[in-house]
Amino acid sequence: MTIRSLAGTLGALLLAAAASQGCAVVPDAKAGASARVKAASVSLGEGKQTMVVATSKRDGGIFFTRPPYDLNGSWSARVSAGIFDPRDVEQSAGAFFTLEVDRREASGNQPTEYYGISARRFLPPDPDVLQVYSYTHAGVVQQTTFPGASAVHLEIAVDQMGDVVFTATDLATEDSESLGSVDLASPASPHQAGFGMFGAPKGARIGFTDFRLNSPGAPAVPIGAGHEACNLVMESALAALAAAYAVDDPVLDEGDVGDALMWLDEAVDAMTAARNAIAASLAAAKKSPEQKALGLAEKALADLVKSSAAFEDDGGAYAKKFVSLVVKQQYGRALEILDLLLPDELRSFLPGTGI
Fold this sequence. Notes:
Elements: H1 3-21, E1 35-43, E2 48-56, E3 61-65, E4 76-82, H2 89-92, E5 96-103, E6 114-121, E7 129-136, E8 139-147, E9 151-158, E10 163-170, E11 176-183, E12 191-200, E13 205-214, H3 225-247, H4 254-280, H5 289-314, H6 319-341, H7 344-347
Antiparallel strand pairs: 1-2, 2-13, 3-12, 4-9, 4-13, 5-6, 5-12, 6-7, 7-8, 9-10, 10-11
């Protein structure tokens, strides 16, 4: 099979998925039944790295998570994804791993405008390549291949001209390829980003790490206090993740710890603002959802402050404990707060799986 015919096959699959589901990855509540998802330490040759690993429990396995965080202005979304353990390549070949940004729709509606990149590993007798596609609600934009690759860094960003730009980078060789650009159909609308896998054969293991979102713009339409508090909680959680990524490395230097402290400062600032916003909107009832959310926010803030102090005192020696704290506790606590505060009109847009 030639690469050209592979392109036709993959293009047809992506177009069929887009046409039948409204987005390349179906945010289905049943997705959890087809994939097991956990934070795991994965061997990368030079050491271990903590990442989200989705394991397909049956053929056609699906996993997709889209945090409730609005992207406005010249936003960007990125994630590193793929088959990180060489022992998993054969059983994971054929699975799609994806980064997608969707326009946030009205309550209960599937996305009608979306921008994504999907990658899929092939093995001989097919060409020994990782094939990568950019796509939108209008169809496939562009494709490329990375010979012998198994993991890529995917990025979707809106530039200053208002175009959505797609980029993929081979993590092993650092070779980067542009996957084209398109106009952003609704620049005044908020968008939300997610990542996941679909079409995975049974036993496939796909890892995801370095998930980052940047939203420099203000909402075109004012949002409510509860929604703003949710955005701040998620902003803090994403900054804490960035701090963990900075020090999740077998070999650390002072620059890595400095980066982690910088991100921790941002996490503290965002959680402080979230805590204040929640406190200002407390319901009269002592056992209200807002009261519980406030308690969780205060715990999250206290842990972030303690982590900053621990890095100041212990430097890189604190890194492993901090990564575990963020992945296994802080991010989950943020989702607990969101579950208590998220307005109903936003809740129905969420996929059924998340971490």
